[in-house]
Q: What sequence folds into this?
């Protein structure tokens, strides 16, 4: 069977509302126990984020669902070509923050887009790599000829799980027990890291007749879950032995008292592992794919925090892969950490920046701390 070449022919993004600066965050997310956070400034100083987006009004009222954000990004793909909706065969939507456990995220997105008509819909689950899994599914559908045109998306709406009232039951329980009425750093840490937004790619078996397209050379992934315990999790509690206790095993009261449905991250496990594990497969991958680091024109590494910037750079040096900072294209500081959408947002901004020329090679690296998974991809500008 002959395989098609696959091209990203359009990209788009959608952010809810206006950007939120560092000093405004608690006006949207609220004050836990009515008090300003003690950790906010420390986390912000390290993560280097100055603006992010929330699908909230001040005071915490929700303005958009995740599915709505994603649908708006998809509409942007076709704002100048409304008939283009009819040619799409596959919709693949990745997120780590779906609006509900079921129905799946992608079918909820489809529900906001009757213009698409009947088509195949896929919802990869996971965390930051979920967007790349959606991209790979769309890529393979076009590659094999099952689809001529496919949409892949990455999106997040973290803010709804970060608002203060999500933690009030836990704080009140701590007060009843006469303990320090502050939630753990593993829970509060992520309140100052995450952002809402969505981005979409249109994939085709032919490049644009005019203008630039991005040829997808390859996409690969790797999981370390066979020997790494969970690091980032939601809907569970981490036990002393490193295993997770499911939300299904807690009483209704315990779900609130322990903030079981909030996002948590084991920061002690994160820092020593997230960068080295991501670098470990690169020498073999580059050799097998015939990729020389010098051939990379633009490097788009997804980073949850600017704290990891120099660590990633130094890891490449250790591996003999020098990728100078002038080749990096990262927008973390002014869009925030948008999880599964982050790499999409980098590619989208880069494609519309005027910086690209035909022949440029764009290397993507997406880490996921949930149980340490990684996705890698190479795009060529054509």
A:
């Amino acid at each position: 069977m002959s395989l098609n070449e696959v091209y990203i022919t359009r990209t788009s993004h959608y952010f809810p509302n206006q950007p939120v600066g560092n000093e405004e965050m608690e006006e949207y997310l609220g004050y836990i126990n009515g008090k300003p956070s003690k950790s906010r400034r420390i986390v912000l100083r390290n993560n280097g984020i100055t603006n992010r987006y929330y699908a909230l009004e001040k005071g915490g009222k929700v303005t958009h669902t995740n599915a709505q954000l994603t649908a708006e990004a998809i509409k942007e793909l076709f704002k100048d070509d409304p008939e283009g909706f009819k040619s799409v065969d596959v919709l693949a939507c990745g997120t780590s923050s779906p609006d509900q456990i079921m129905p799946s995220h992608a079918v909820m997105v489809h529900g906001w887009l009757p213009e698409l008509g009947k088509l195949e819909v896929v919802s990869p689950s996971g965390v930051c790599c979920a967007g790349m899994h959606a991209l790979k599914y769309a890529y393979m559908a076009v590659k094999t000829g099952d689809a001529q045109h496919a949409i892949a998306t990455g999106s997040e709406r973290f803010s709804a799980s970060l608002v203060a009232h999500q933690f009030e039951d836990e704080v009140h329980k701590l007060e009843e027990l006469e303990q320090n009425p502050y939630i753990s750093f593993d829970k509060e840490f992520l309140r100052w890291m995450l952002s809402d937004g969505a981005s979409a790619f249109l994939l085709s078996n032919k490049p644009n007749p005019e203008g630039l397209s991005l040829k997808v050379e390859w996409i690969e992934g790797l999981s370390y879950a066979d020997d790494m315990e969970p690091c980032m999790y939601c809907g569970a509690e981490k036990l002393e032995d490193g295993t997770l206790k499911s939300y299904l095993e807690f009483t209704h009261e315990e779900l609130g008292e322990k903030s079981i449905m909030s996002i948590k991250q084991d920061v002690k496990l994160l820092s020593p592992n997230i960068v080295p594990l991501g670098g470990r497969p690169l020498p073999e991958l580059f050799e097998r794919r015939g990729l020389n680091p010098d051939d990379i024109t633009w490097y788009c590494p997804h980073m949850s925090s600017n704290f990891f910037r120099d660590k990633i750079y130094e890891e490449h040096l250790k591996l003999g892969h020098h990728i100078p900072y002038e080749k990096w294209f990262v927008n973390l500081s002014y869009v925030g950490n948008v999880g599964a959408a982050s790499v999409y947002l980098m590619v989208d901004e880069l494609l519309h920046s005027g910086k690209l020329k035909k022949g440029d090679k764009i290397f993507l690296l997406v880490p996921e701390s949930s149980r340490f998974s990684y996705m890698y991809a190479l795009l060529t500008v054509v």
Summary: The radius of gyration is 21 Å.
